[in-house]
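Budget justification aside, the reviewers requested a transparent look at the raw inputs and outputs of the sequence design task funded under Objective 1. We therefore reproduce one unedited record. The lines immediately below are the C-alpha cells for a 458-residue chain.
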C-alpha cells in the first residue's frame, strides 16, 4: 500500500467520523470562522448597516465590499452565505466530496465581492426546479447549486438598477420578478451545461462551471440589454484602501488551523502529502484519493502559499502592504477552493511563474498596461490556477505557458458578459485549455506516457 492509501485508511479510522461528516464539519466550522471575524474586526458596530449596503448595491465586476458596506458587514455576508451552503451539504443524500469543498470556497470567496445573501437565492431555486422536472433529489445537486451562482451580479442588477445603466432605483416589484425569473432560468439551465463542460476542456480547467457561468451571461446581456436597446452599465472597478492587518490575520489564522486540523486528521502526520504534491490534479478528488485529512492540510498549505504570492507581487511596486481589500481576500479563497480537488503548490507554481514572466515582458519590455500587481491581473491569476492539471500532466514548462496565455487574455473576456459573470477568469482558463491542450496532445507526451516509454526501454 502506498503513502496515499495508508493516509486514507488513517483518516477512515479517525473515530466515528467518515469523510462526508468531516467535510461537513469543516465547512460549518469555516462558516463560523467568517462569523467570528465579523464580530472581531474593529468596525463591528457597522455590521448590520454594512450588510444592508452590500445587499442593496450593484455587484458588477469589480466591487470592494469593504467600502461598499463595511469590513464587519462583509464578513457577516460571507458567513451567512457560507452557513447556507454548509447546511445544504448536510441534507440527507447530498453528494459530498472534494468538489463540495471547491464549490463552498468558490461561493464564499465570491461573497467577499459579487455574491450576497440576497442575490444567490434565485439560482438555488432554479437548480431545485431542475431537480423537480427531472424527478431527482435536490441534495444530489448541492455542488451544482453553489456553482450556479456565477451570475449573482446580474441578479442584483435586475433587482436594483435595470434598465438604467447608472441610477440605482432600489427594489421594485418589476425588479423582483425579473431577478427571480432570470436567475431561476439560469439556475435551471446550469446543471446540464455544467455536466457537458468537461467534454469541452477534457478536465484541464478546474473551474468547469465557468462554461454556463459565462455563456448564459453572454446570452442574458444580449437579450436584456443589446436587443432591447438598453445600455450595458460601464465596467468600472470600485476599490478602497488596503487592510493588510485584517486580510493577513484572517488568512494566516484560518489556513494555519487547516494545516493543524489536517495534520491531526491524518493521524498526526504529514505522511502521504508528498504523494499528493506529485498528483497531476487531472480529474482528481484529493478527498477520495488521499482522505479528508490530507485534503484539508493541502487547503491550508496552499492557502498560505497564495497569501505569500500576493504579498510578493504587491511588494514589486514597493509596498507589500498595499492592495489588500475584500477583492484580494475573496480571490485567495476562490483560488484555494480546488485545494481538495486538483490544485496544490506543486502544480500551481508554474502558473504563477508564467504570470510574473509574461507580465514583466509585456509591461517592462513592451510597454504594456497590465503589471502583475494590477487588481485585474491579481484576480486573473486566481482563476489561471484552474489550468494546474496542464502543469501536472505535461510539466512545469506547459504550466508557465498556460499561465502566460491566461495573462494575455483575461482582461478581454469581461466585455462579452457585461461584467456580470464572476467566472470570468475560469472561462478564460477554459478557452486556454481548448487552444493549448490539443497542441500538447498532438506534440507532447504526458508524464505518465513518458514514464511508460522509459519503462519500456528498460
Amino acid at each position: 500500500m502506498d503513502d496515499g492509501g495508508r493516509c486514507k485508511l488513517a483518516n477512515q479510522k479517525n473515530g466515528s467520523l467518515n469523510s462526508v461528516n468531516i467535510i461537513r464539519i469543516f465547512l460549518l466550522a469555516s462558516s463560523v470562522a467568517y462569523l467570528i471575524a465579523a464580530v472581531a474586526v474593529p468596525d463591528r458596530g457597522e455590521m448590520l448597516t454594512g450588510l444592508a449596503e452590500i445587499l442593496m448595491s450593484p455587484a458588477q465586476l469589480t466591487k470592494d465590499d469593504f467600502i461598499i458596506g463595511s469590513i464587519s458587514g462583509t464578513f457577516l455576508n460571507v458567513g451567512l452565505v457560507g452557513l447556507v451552503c454548509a447546511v445544504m451539504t448536510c441534507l440527507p443524500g447530498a453528494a459530498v466530496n472534494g468538489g463540495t469543498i471547491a464549490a463552498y470556497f468558490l461561493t464564499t470567496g465570491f461573497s467577499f465581492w459579487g455574491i450576497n445573501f440576497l442575490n444567490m437565492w434565485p439560482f438555488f431555486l432554479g437548480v431545485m426546479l431542475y431537480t423537480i422536472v427531472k424527478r431527482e433529489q435536490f441534495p444530489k445537486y448541492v455542488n451544482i447549486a453553489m456553482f450556479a451562482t456565477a451570475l449573482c451580479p446580474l441578479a442584483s442588477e435586475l433587482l436594483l438598477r435595470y434598465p438604467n445603466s447608472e441610477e440605482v432605483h432600489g427594489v421594485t416589484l418589476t425588479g423582483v420578478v425579473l431577478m427571480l425569473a432570470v436567475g431561476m432560468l439560469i439556475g435551471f439551465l446550469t446543471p446540464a451545461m455544467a455536466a457537458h463542460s468537461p467534454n469541452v476542456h477534457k478536465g484541464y480547467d478546474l473551474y468547469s462551471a465557468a462554461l454556463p457561468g459565462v455563456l448564459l451571461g453572454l446570452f442574458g446581456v444580449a437579450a436584456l440589454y443589446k436587443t432591447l436597446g438598453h445600455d450595458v452599465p460601464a465596467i468600472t472597478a470600485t476599490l478602497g484602501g488596503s487592510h493588510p492587518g485584517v486580510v493577513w490575520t484572517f488568512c494566516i489564522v484560518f489556513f494555519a488551523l487547516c494545516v493543524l486540523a489536517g495534520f491531526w486528521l491524518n493521524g498526526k502526520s504529514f505522511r502521504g502529502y508528498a504523494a499528493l504534491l506529485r498528483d497531476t490534479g487531472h480529474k482528481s478528488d484529493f478527498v477520495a484519493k488521499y482522505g479528508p485529512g490530507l485534503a484539508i492540510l493541502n487547503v491550508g498549505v496552499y492557502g498560505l502559499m497564495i497569501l505569500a504570492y500576493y504579498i510578493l507581487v504587491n511588494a514589486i511596486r514597493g509596498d507589500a502592504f498595499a492592495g489588500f481589500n475584500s477583492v484580494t481576500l475573496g480571490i485567495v479563497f476562490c483560488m484555494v477552493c480546488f485545494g481538495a480537488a486538483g490544485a496544490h503548490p506543486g502544480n500551481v507554481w508554474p502558473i504563477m511563474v508564467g504570470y510574473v514572466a509574461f507580465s514583466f515582458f509585456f509591461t517592462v519590455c513592451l510597454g504594456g498596461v497590465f503589471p502583475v500587481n494590477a487588481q485585474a491581473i491579481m484576480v486573473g491569476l486566481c482563476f489561471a490556477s484552474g489550468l494546474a492539471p496542464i502543469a501536472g500532466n505535461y510539466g512545469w514548462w506547459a504550466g508557465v505557458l498556460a499561465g502566460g496565455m491566461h495573462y494575455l487574455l483575461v482582461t478581454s473576456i469581461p466585455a462579452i458578459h457585461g461584467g456580470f459573470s464572476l467566472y470570468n477568469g475560469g472561462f478564460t482558463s477554459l478557452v486556454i485549455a481548448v487552444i493549448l491542450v490539443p497542441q500538447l496532445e498532438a506534440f507532447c507526451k504526458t508524464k505518465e506516457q513518458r514514464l511508460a516509454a522509459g519503462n519500456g526501454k528498460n
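Confidence is low (pLDDT under 50) at residues 11-16. The longest helix spans residues 173-201. Computational costs for records of this kind are itemized in the attached budget.
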